[in-house]
Amino acid sequence: MSGRGLARLAPVVLVLAAGLSACGGSDADPPATTSSPTTDGDAVAITVTRKDDAFTPNGERVELGIGQTLKLTVTADEAGEFHVHSTPEQEIEYEEGTSEHEITVGRPGVVEVESHDPASVVLQLEVR
Questions:
Q1: Structural domains of the chain ordered from first start
Q2: Strands of the sheet with 60-64, listed across from one edge
Q3: Once rounded to an integer, what is the mean pLDDT over residues 7-27?
Q4: Quick one: signal sequence residues (predicted)?
Q5: Which of 10, 21, 47, 90 supports an S-S bond with 84, CB 3.0-4.6 Å?
């Protein structure tokens, strides 16, 4: 190839090299971590608090893998029940005080965990 042909290719090579280096990482820069749970069987833990007919969290979306366990710790100033709108549906009865419960969902989608009394969507499980 002539010198003129190489001169034309130089900008293309530089653009390709820059693009490849932007996609790669270095040992000095570890990958960013996310709050997304893994689907390798590790459980996800969430604490729900009921106080004066209000829930914390309130409608928060939580990522969950198909078949992954959600460990739910409920601290409540009075007894109640959550409805998990999965297939099949699940109900979680909790007492006044602190109790622990487990939820697993076998199908992908968004599953609401809600209270009917008082009416509130407590969690949205984004199952993948």
A1: 44-127 (2.60.40.420)
A2: 60-64, 119-127, 109-116, 80-84, 90-94
A3: 42
A4: 1-28
A5: 90
* 83: amino acid identity, one letter: H
Q: Which of 110, 103, 124 is nearest to 58 (CA)?
A: 124
Buried b (16+ CB within 10 A) or exposed e, 55-74: beeeeeebbbbeebbbebeb
58, two tokens: 């309130």
pTM (two decimals) = 0.65
Query: What would the pLDDT profile of 24-44 be if each residue is shown by its tens digit?
Result: 433 443 332 223 333 445 899
The predicted structure's pLDDT at residue 3: 56
Question: Higher-confidence residue: 117 or 27?
Answer: 117
